[in-house]
Design goal:
The chain is an all-alpha fold. The protein contains 15 helices and no strands.
């Protein structure tokens, strides 16, 4: 009989399976919709305002999944929870090949968002609990590269298929998703103990502070939440903004989406290296400064350099901020409260992302311009930067001898 030791026998297989899960959940389940907005509008399936609302519905699903993931995994066990989410994601991709209208399409986008959030929350601790402490930083970076690889895969796959038809694009994505889900399931996930705890032993590593003021931790959580709303324009509207609003065409929009995905691949590793040099707290502030400037850049420069740099840096800093916030929360929180506080941060991220998605959709309907949503996103990220500066660096200043990442 296969045991959990067999699973961890090849230490690379667990993080790779985690990367595949996030590739499917976030890269395919969420981000495949972004480069398809323009074809959906041009084909008459939906108006631009309706696609904006569908994007917001997907974020609502992510919020629902984030709120219920731990309870869901506790009820089914992580193995069955992961299996059900992989199946739901593949079904949601296949179902979007038909023009169901707003209600039907909205349902499947909601399912995709909920499954993506559940995988994000369940998979990572299930893997980290089975990794030696020395391998956890590399494992975490590997897992989160799945988001960038998925985004890149979508940007390469969609342009090749969009000319064939929207339905063919969704079905091809579903087939690729099914193959990846099957490989990861039979290679890794089916070997997990069905009764394993959903959370994992995330408190096993030592925290450097047990008495950090709660206000400072709250500021870090607030910064993380605001970041989710701030990058909504790039995550939902970036391709359509370039293709239609700037008049560059869908092919150009997809090229910049590919750059954003490339940033997502290098972002986690870059965040880890920076944290080792500056410490998690200072690295987090640096990441917020970069993403704020990169988000605002298209407001001043819409040439190749401006759009390319904005795509690459925002793409890198989104998973980078996730990695650095997790490390900062771990460093600032009392050991017994780390999992709870990370749960609060995840919920804050999902909630502000969902609220931001609906608010940005409404703003676009009123203003008729994606540039307005980008400006609002940059302002939210500026406020997030201030919160991170006050919280993370303030906490580090109060612990001058705290070790680096």
């Amino acid at each position: 009989m296969t045991t959990s030791n067999d699973v961890s026998g090849g230490l690379w297989r667990l993080p790779m399976a985690g990367a595949v899960a996030l590739l499917l959940g976030v890269g395919f389940g969420r981000y495949v919709f972004t480069p398809l907005i323009t074809p959906l509008v041009e084909a008459g399936w939906f108006t631009a305002e309706q696609t904006a609302r569908l994007g917001a519905i997907n974020l609502l699903g992510y919020l629902i999944g984030a709120a219920g993931a731990n309870r869901y995994a506790g009820w089914l066990g992580p193995r069955r929870a992961i299996a059900s989410c992989l199946i739901a994601l593949v079904l949601s991709l296949a179902a979007c090949a038909w023009p169901w209208g707003m209600i039907g399409y909205g349902f499947w986008r909601l399912i995709a968002g909920a499954a993506a959030a559940t995988l994000t929350i369940v998979v990572t601790p299930a893997i980290m609990a089975r990794m030696p402490a020395v391998r956890r930083p590399a494992a975490s970076a590997t897992i989160f590269t799945g988001i960038g690889v998925g985004t890149m895969g979508v940007s390469l796959l969609v342009p090749q298929l969009a000319s064939v038809g929207i339905g063919a694009t969704w079905l091809a994505t579903a087939v690729v998703g099914a193959l990846l889900a099957g490989i990861s399931w039979f290679g890794v996930w089916r070997h997990l103990p069905a009764e394993a705890a959903a959370g994992g032993d995330t408190a096993a590593a030592p925290a450097s502070a047990g008495h950090t003021p709660w206000l400072l931790i709250g500021l870090v959580v607030a910064a993380y939440g605001l970041s989710a709303a701030g990058y909504v324009p790039h995550s939902l509207y970036w391709v359509d903004y370039i293709a239609r609003e700037l008049g560059r065409g869908l092919e150009a929009g997809n090229r910049y989406w590919l750059l954003l995905g490339l940033g997502g691949v290098i972002g986690p590793a870059l965040a880890g290296l920076t944290a080792r040099w500056l410490g998690f707290e200072r690295a987090l502030v640096a990441a917020f400064v970069l993403i704020t400037l990169a988000t605002a850049l298209p407001l001043a420069f819409t040439g190749i350099a401006g759009l390319g740099l904005s795509s690459l840096v925002v793409g890198a800093m989104v998973p980078g901020i996730i990695t650095l916030t997790a490390g900062t929360v771990h460093a600032l929180s009392p050991v017994a409260r780390q999992r709870q506080i990370w749960g609060w941060a995840t919920l804050a991220f999902a909630a502000t992302q969902a609220i931001g998605g609906f608010a940005m959709a409404r703003l676009y309907a009123l203003a008729g311009s994606y540039a307005t949503t980008i400006a609002v996103g940059a302002m939210l990220l500026f406020v997030a930067t201030i919160c991170a500066l006050l919280g993370a660096v303030g906490a580090r200043t109060s612990r001058p001898n705290a070790p680096r990442g």
